[in-house]
Design a protein that fits this description.
This protein is an alpha+beta fold and about 80 residues long. It is built from two helices and four strands, in the order βββαβα. The two termini are about 20 Å apart.
């Protein structure tokens, strides 16, 4: 798992459109990040785009994964 959204999420929708992997979706109460699709933007951007646009500052690093693991996930998602 890479990034995760905390309970401080206001469900503003800002993060959804900037995710290059379509890993963010609406949950029951707050938005959630699919850990199988999140690469922390490795392979697509220099830094996590969702963190940059989040006005609530509620997107945090979950379990730390190496850049190699994140890049391999990016390639498996995008071929």
């Amino acid at each position: 798992m890479s990034l995760k959204i905390t309970d401080d999420c206001t469900s503003c929708d800002a993060c959804v459109s900037v995710c290059p992997n379509n890993a963010i979706s609406a949950g029951d109460v707050i938005y959630v990040i699919n850990p199988a699709a999140c690469t922390e933007c490795v392979g697509a951007e220099d830094s996590p785009q969702c963190q940059m646009v989040c006005p609530a500052d509620c997107i945090v690093v979950g379990d730390v994964e190496s850049k190699d693991v994140l890049m391999a996930r990016y390639h498996s998602l995008h071929g």
